[in-house]
Design brief:
Layout (H helix, E strand, L loop, with lengths): L1 H8 L3 H19 L4 H16 L3 H19 L33
Length: 106
């Protein structure tokens, strides 16, 4: 994933796509088909394809990643408050008040 992101930041989308697909393959092999790290790789592939103007491929991967996240983390409750994944509740706090997952103040 790091290489895919780096290539993407350098606008080398062909290389980014290759590394992203390899990251997705390895994550599925290591963690199984349904996992948040797999969803992250799918979302990244969607971003890369969007930058390449492959809008159909981008939408496909983005939807797969979103669907997997919704399956694993839950959907917002209908008519009520939203479900918040553990550790994400302080994202609306001002900088200097938020804590990272390892407890450092951001």
């Amino acid at each position: 994933m790091v290489l895919a992101k780096t290539y993407g930041a350098l606008s080398l989308y062909t290389n980014a796509l290759e590394m992203g697909r390899e990251a997705l393959r390895l994550r599925k092999l290591t963690f199984g088909e349904t996992n948040l790290v797999v969803a992250d790789a799918q979302a990244l592939l969607g971003e890369i394809m969007y930058e390449q103007r492959d809008l159909q491929g981008a939408e496909n991967f983005a939807r797969q990643g979103l669907q997997m996240r919704m399956t694993l983390l839950g959907r917002p409750a209908l008519g009520g408050g939203e479900q918040t994944p553990r550790g994400a509740g302080d994202q609306n706090q001002p900088v200097g008040k938020r804590k990272s997952r390892c407890g450092q103040i951001l």
